[in-house]
Amino acid sequence: MTLIIERAGLTTVQDYGRPGWAHLGVPHSGAVDRGSFLLANRLAGNERSAAMLETSGGLALRASVAITVVITGADTDAYINNQPLAHCKATLVHPGDTIRINRVLDGMRCYVAFTGGVHGLAQLHSLSHDSLSQIVPMPLTAGSEITLGVADRLATSLDVPIVPRRLPRLSLHPGPHHSMLTPEQRQDLATRKWIIAQDSNRIGVRLTSDALRPNEFPELLSLPLVRGAVQLTPSGELVVMLADHPPRVDTPSLVYWHQMMLMTLRNDQAAPQWCWDGEPF
């Protein structure tokens, strides 16, 4: 079973990632929004790590045979031909039909799963597109084909779709360099209005502000990173690490937050208020 790409847009192939290669400098990668990824595979009747498409819009696919599709994640302007494609609903696509994910309406990433999952030649045991290491097992270009596997079980639907919700407050956990900040610096970081920059990507979400203050922290030893680590850059911007983050860095890791909380945010929007153990950071 195959799909023909008419337009790739801002789309990559992702599975659950490639753990175990950090010693070679290779990120874990995989789906950014793991919750939406797992939900899509569950509804499509696939095994939990089956590959699918992660998109921020501009995607158009044509089915060559009858397939079943499920979309989860960010709210999107999605269609099969000219009919709206519902979230969290297993939908039959007939041969010759076109699936379109035009744009994201609220959030950052939508997940498009097909019964049987996306199949291809894996690199380091994964089909995930890694934007940091430039590991791209399945480049998506107009005219190329996507091969699908055979379904493990029947696809299902939800009566009420699950869409990641926006949270007004964000809980933090101390990082290894949290103590390097003075109480005044902590208060400044917590009360400042942070905006998600347009150059945010799968490596990290960059937070900027109108009143950045460069820091003069000493050079640090390289330390391992995890998703959700908040790095303080020399310019004073913050970077929240996502799926394709480098395994190690030598800039301060101030705090950690759950990266899933950022899934509903869009570029140029204000970040949520920071909280520390239920109190302002």
Q: What's the N-to-C terminus distance?
A: 52 Å
Roughly how many Å is the radius of gyration?
20 Å
The arrangement of helices and strands along the chain is: EEHEEEEEEEEEHEEEEEEEEE
The major sheet is characterized as: 10 strands, antiparallel
Poorly predicted spans: 277-281
Helices, by number, come to 2
Whole-number count of domains = 2
Q: Structural class, from helix and strand content? A: mainly beta
Query: Strand fraction band?
Result: 25-35%
Q: What is the 3D shape?
A: elongated
Q: What's a concise summary of this model?
A:
By secondary structure, the chain is mainly β.
Plain-language structure description:
The protein is mostly beta strands. It has 2 domains: 2-148, no CATH class; 169-280, Cyclophilin-like (Cyclophilin), CATH 2.40.100. Helices cover 7% and strands 35% of the residues. It is built from 2 helices and 20 strands. A hairpin with a 5-residue loop joins β15 (229-232) and β16 (238-241). The protein is elongated, with a radius of gyration of 20 Å.
